[in-house]
């Protein structure tokens, strides 16, 4: 009888610890500024490990391990996007903006200009993408963009 109880307790503890150790799947979609799917976007972790690239429809999926705290989306002719991984979120939908180069102005001024344009343009693009059903509504920041009023 004692062997059965010890075996059962060991089995229960092993199954509980196995459930906590499993990694989860992070997935999502990447669109370009014109709200078209963006294939070939490189997705890397915070230590520059390549996690995935987007397919022809802009979809990506990778297994999140414990060391990944943020992910970076990089592509030619697009601004880099850094996303912090949230424990309660498994879906990340991203819109990448065009990369601009400004001549004859200082780097500081160019950065301010890009930041201003980004803050003005990006929320409207997310609202339009959700309205056109380009993204699934299960994204973590869906409510934030849904409440945004276009002006």
How would you describe this protein?
The protein is of the alpha+beta class. It has one domain (23-146): Carboxypeptidase-like, regulatory domain (Immunoglobulin-like, Sandwich), CATH 2.60.40.1120. It has three helices and seven strands; from the N terminus they run H-E-E-E-E-E-E-E-H-H. It has helices at residues 2-21, 107-131, 142-146, and strands at 24-32, 42-45, 50-53, 59-64, 70-74, 81-84, 91-96. The strands form two sheets. The chain has a four-stranded antiparallel β-sheet with strand order 3-2-5-6, with no helix packed on it. It has a three-stranded mixed β-sheet with strand order 4-1-7. The longest helix has 25 residues, at 107-131. It is elongated, with a radius of gyration of 21 Å.
**What would the principal axes of the Cα set say about the shape?**
elongated
Rounded radius of gyration (Å): 21 Å
Strand content: 25-35%
Find the CATH superfamily.
Carboxypeptidase-like, regulatory domain
Task: Quickly count the domains.
Answer: 1
Largest sheet, in brief, is:
4 strands, antiparallel
The ordered string of helix (H) and strand (E) elements is HEEEEEEEHH
Class by alpha and beta content: alpha+beta
Mean pLDDT: 81
Instruction: Kindly state the number of beta strands.
Output: 7
CATH arch. level architecture: Sandwich
The quaternary organization reads as: single chain
Q: Please give the share of residues in helix.
A: 25-40%
């Amino acid at each position: 009888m004692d062997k059965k109880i010890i075996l059962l307790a060991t089995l229960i503890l092993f199954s509980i610890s196995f459930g906590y150790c499993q990694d989860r799947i992070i997935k999502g979609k990447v669109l370009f500024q014109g709200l078209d799917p963006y294939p070939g976007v490189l997705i890397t972790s915070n230590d520059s490990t390549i996690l995935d690239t987007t397919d022809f429809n802009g979809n990506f999926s990778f297994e999140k391990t414990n060391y990944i705290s943020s992910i970076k989306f990089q592509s030619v002719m697009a601004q880099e996007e850094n996303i912090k991984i949230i424990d309660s979120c498994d879906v990340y939908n991203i819109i990448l903006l065009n990369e601009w180069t400004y001549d004859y102005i200082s780097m500081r001024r160019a950065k301010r200009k890009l930041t201003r344009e980004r803050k003005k343009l990006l929320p409207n693009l997310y609202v339009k993408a959700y309205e056109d059903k380009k993204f699934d509504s299960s994204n973590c920041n869906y409510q934030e963009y849904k409440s945004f009023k276009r002006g």
